[in-house]
Amino acid sequence: MNAFQHGSNVLLLLPQGATVQEFNALCVLLDDPDPHVHQAAQERLIQYGPSIVPALRAAIESIHDDDTQQRMTDVVRYFQRKAVDDLRTMVYKANAEGKDIDLEEMFLTLSRFGYPETDEEAVRKELDAIALRVHSLFMKSPQHTELSLLLNVNRAFFEEARFTGADNEHYHNPDNTYVQAILQTRRGIPISLCVLYLLVAERADVVMHGIGMPAHFVVYHPELDIFIDTFGNGAFLSREDCRRFIQGAGFTFEPSMLERVSNVAILLRMIRNLVFAYGKMHNRTWEIEALQELSAAILEIMNQEEE
């Protein structure tokens, strides 16, 4: 069996140091009925690291043997479980130290659940570049005020980097939560766009934080007392605008709905979004259960603090 007999360009998918010949040989061994043989092949694939995942996904799509597909999937899930374990450990350590988790580290680690091959260095470089553009625009502005800085964050993020809200057709795609995919499509849902926006703003020395309104997520600039709707291309909202939105969505407004939320709360909300998104897809029970178990573990950790 040749895993790429249908013409996939494996050279573009394999990590550095891997060859088509060895990869295809390992795929053949995955089909071996002897558990010692196919487990050894799986272990060799794992040794390549998460960058082997794109090649495995392509192979899964191009072959038709159920056992081999499952064994390839198990390798992919090995790396996905690592992301889940890392998120659980992250929350546990932060909680033990009386701290919140790091927003950027959380976002990158969560992305490794959907895309184990997430290139964290490349993501950080792109965020750095957008923030540098904010600085460049600000230095050329006629006024060096906090509002001018915020406007330039919007210009760099929405107009130049072209981040935008996902349309109705793609809204419930899990990719809208994973930064690896968002940087490719430039699309996201409110909470993921807010996280990206906050990471750029932090690099540009703009102090903002997330607001987890019911049915929507926005960013708040405390010095200017302005809410930013990243799903609406950076539209500025007042408190009254937010109140009307919440009531229009069928909720009874409470001032606490416009309070800052923790990064752990952001993670839990993103996990819930992913569970819902995977629930709309065929045969994604494993992802749903893994995320639900992670959410339950995080809530248990946080409840221990309250006790």
**SS element count, helices:** 12
Kindly estimate the percentage of residues that lie in beta strands according to DSSP: 5-15%
| Sheet with most strands: strand arrangement | 3-4-5-6
Please give the share of residues in helix: 55-70%
Low-confidence stretches: none
The description of the largest β-sheet is:
4 strands, antiparallel
Mean pLDDT: 94
Overall shape: globular
Strands, total number: 6
First-residue to last-residue Cα separation: 57 Å
- What's the helix-strand series? HHHHHHHEHEHEEEEHHH
* Estimated structural class: mainly alpha
Structural Rg: 22 Å
Overall number of domains = 2
Brief characterization of the structure:
Helices cover 59% and strands 6% of the residues. The chain is built from twelve helices and six strands.
Features:
2 domains; 4-stranded antiparallel sheet; mainly alpha; 307 residues; 59% helix; two-stranded parallel sheet; 12 helices
